[in-house]
Amino acid sequence: TCAGQLKGKTVVITAGPTQERIDPVRYFTNHSSGKMGYAIAEAARLQGAKVVLISGPTQIEPPEGVEVIHVVSAKEMFEACMRYYEKADIVIKSAAVADYRPKDTFEQKRKKQPGTWFIEMERTTDILQTLGNQKVDQILVGFAAESEHVEEYAMKKLHSKNLDLIIANNILQEGAGFKGDTNIVTTFTKDGDKKEYPVLAKREVAQFIISDIITYMERHHR
Ligand code: PMT
Predict the structure, then answer these.
(1) Nearest residue CA, atom 24 of ligand 1?
(2) What is the DSSP string of 128-197?
(3) If residue 102 lies in a helix (H) or strand (E), which one and from where to where?
(4) For residues 184 and 174, what is the distance between their CA atoms, to the nearest angstrom?
(5) Where is CTP bound in this sequence (predicted)?
(6) Residues identified as active-site
(7) Which of 128, 160, 174 gets mutated to test ligand 1 (max ligand atoms within 8 A of its CB)?
């Protein structure tokens, strides 16, 4: 792809983990570093897009020229996504959003007590599903982090969440998934295209993802 192919487009990208609070000192989270999503933000920016990066807590620097919205919980990420959805041409959901959060949270630090502590968990809202249900003409791109039956589960998510593309990664594969600087992905489009990539730096993976999205949009005259 040559530069500037997303000029005039607004791209909303989610990245990183969410943190689900238990009390002022404890929370549930996951291993996402934000690297994959930040790399996608940079690649979209390089193609001239206006980029909004909705990010959970990470330790890394956002790319230059990108508007960053910091969020903590799945609920905050949901609200930020909804706020930017209408103006978005493309939404790419690389964040690792918590599927569950503690049902009860404590204002004060919960003291140690004898015996077992049972924490009841409730479901968070599936952001991608909600965006899919409310889609007008946005290009909606999801991720699938799977540890088995990768293609089958990815295709299920592509169709049930009303996506245009899905990026599957097998998080148990060496060199793929959370934290590291590389990933191994396969992209699937709604039209039935499948592209399998080798192990690559997340920056390169990001460029291929953006270029697959551009190809898809050209085919759909968007
Ligand atoms: O951040 P890194 O360390 O670089 O790691 C990158 C990554 C492994 C996090 C990334 O490549 C990745 O796979 N991201 C998606 C992680 C995930 O939560 O996948 P999932 O299969 O559980 O969810 C499917 C899709 O639904 C995802 O696009 C997710 O953003 C979205 N989702 C999930 C739950 C929820 N409540 N709302 C959502 O929108």
Answers:
(1) 144
(2) HHHHHHT-SS-EEEEEEEESSSHHHHHHHHHHHTT-SEEEEEETTSTT-SSSSSEE-EEEEETTS-EEE-
(3) strand 100-102
(4) 9
(5) 99, 109, 143, 157, 161
(6) 30
(7) 128
Task: Extract the tokens encoding 103.
Answer: 């049902």
**Looking at domain 10-98+121-219, what is its CATH homologous superfamily?**
CoaB-like (3.40.50.10300)
Residue ranges lining ligand 1, Cβ < 6 Å? 16, 32-36, 74, 93-97, 99, 124, 126-128, 142-145, 157, 169, 171, 177-179, 183
141 sits in the region (left: phi over 0; alpha: psi -120 to 50; else beta) called: beta
Per-residue model confidence as pLDDT tens digits over 61-85: 999 999 999 999 999 999 999 999 9
Ligand 1 centroid from CA 36, angstroms: 10
Q: Is 57 strand, coil or helix? A: coil
pLDDT, one tens digit per residue, over 96-131 is 999 999 999 999 999 999 999 999 999 999 999 999
- Residue 222: both structure tokens together: 């968007």
Q: What one-letter code names the amino acid at 62? A: P
Q: In which residue are the tokens 């460029």 written?
A: 207
- The two tokens of residue 30 are 């996951």
Annotated binding-site residues for CTP read 99, 109, 143, 157, 161
Interface ipTM > 0.90:
yes
Tokens of 169: 């990664």
